[in-house]
Design a protein that fits this description.
Helix content is 46%, strand content 15%. It has two domains: 207 residues, Rossmann fold (3-Layer(aba) Sandwich), CATH 3.40.50.1100; 79 residues, Rossmann fold. Strand 8, helix 9 and strand 9 form a beta-alpha-beta unit. The chain is globular, with a radius of gyration of 19 Å. It contains eleven helices and ten strands. The chain is of the alpha/beta class. The structure holds pyridoxal-5'-phosphate. Pyridoxal-5'-phosphate (PLP) binds next to strand 7 and helix 8.
């Protein structure tokens, strides 16, 4: 029986901002299970209940908790992502200022995303060009300027995947463990999209602390498996050091077979998985994160990587805003 005490010892040291609604539901996908000949479940992290934020809400819950504890009055992050939009939303409701450094001019960005940032009162700083170096330099200069002006700045990793952000998915793993204890349903596999790595690292920390035996597979949506695995290991090492855990992820599984042509490019398998999930279960998946993970689930059920008697948990990490632009 997995234990949650060690998870609680870790999480108890870190304040949450109280964003969102958790635990999110875990439900059986009855029609897909029948079709796949296994028992498929979903963790509804598309329903984290704050600004259509999906998995970002869990990360921000701890990040903003940490920002408040460190008496920050200003958040700074970079890039036009659902993470920065949700950081902006959290800042707005908690009375903090939020600045986002945006690569390129306003015209380079989707107008729908711009409208959401405007609605949230975000201070956007567009810069010339898209080069990583230029964005980083503008970001660092902005932070220096804000600090020189007396602001107490909390810097948010773009994607929220630092040690504190990963705690959001340690919390999610705690909920999974509790579900298994309450229902007797033990998940042989857990499957989710992996990008900036915080989701996978948090889940793996939770697994390690609880001793829950399962295979957590990150379906790569942005990088080939070797690069993605290296990034997961790097964050895992940071987490271990920061929280004093004696842990290395020696059971890491990353699969890049569903990446298609690359980050943010839809694929035929993902489109077909998303139609299947919509028609069988009324579950909406975005094309470039959750649908790629769903394509893996479909293939694993077909090729026997998930056995007929096994339970698999698909983590729906959100991406709902992306359905509309
Ligand atoms: C909808 C969705 N799912 C999954 C991910 C991947 O999560 P992580 O960045 O924690 O690896 C992202 C990241 O942007 C996302 O937006």
């Amino acid at each position: 029986m997995p234990a949650i005490d060690a998870i609680d010892d870790l999480l108890g040291q870190h304040p949450r901002a109280g964003l969102g609604i958790t635990p999110t539901p875990i439900t059986k996908l009855a029609r897909l299970s029948e079709r796949f000949q296994c028992s498929a479940y979903v963790l509804r992290d598309d329903l984290t209940g704050f600004c259509l934020g999906g998995n970002k809400v869990r990360k921000l819950d701890y990040l903003i908790g940490d920002a408040i504890r460190s008496q920050a009055d200003t958040l700074v992050t970079m890039k036009a992502s659902s993470f920065s939009r949700n950081a902006a939303a959290a800042a707005a409701v908690l009375g903090l200022e939020c600045h986002v450094v945006m690569p390129g001019s306003a015209q380079c960005h989707n107008p729908a995303s711009g409208r959401l940032f405007d609605a949230l009162g975000t201070r956007l700083h567009y810069i010339d060009g898209q080069a990583e170096d230029a964005v980083q330099q503008a970001h660092d200069m902005l932070i220096a300027k804000l600090r020189a002006g007396g602001r107490s700045v909390y810097v948010l990793h773009p994607g929220g995947s630092d040690a504190i952000g990963a705690l959001g998915y340690v919390q999610a793993f705690r909920e999974i463990t509790e579900y298994s204890t309450d229902t007797g349903v033990h998940f042989d596999h857990i499957l989710h999209a992996t990008g900036s790595t915080g989701t996978q690292v948090g889940l793996m920390v939770g697994q390690n602390l609880s001793g829950y035996s399962t295979v957590i597979t990150g379906i790569a949506v942005s990088q080939p498996a070797d690069v993605q695995s290296r990034r997961v290991r790097e964050l895992a090492a940071t987490v271990s050091e920061r929280f004093g855990l004696d842990w290395v992820p020696d059971n890491l599984v990353v699969d890049d077979q569903y990446l298609g042509e690359g980050y943010a490019i839809p694929s035929a398998e993902a489109r077909s998985a998303s139609e299947l999930f919509a028609r069988a279960e009324g579950l909406l998946l975005d094309d470039v994160y959750t649908a790629k993970a769903a394509a893996a689930l479909v293939a694993y059920a077909q090729n026997g990587r998930i056995g007929t008697a096994q339970n698999v948990l698909f983590i729906h990490t959100g991406g709902n805003a992306g359905l509309f632009y």
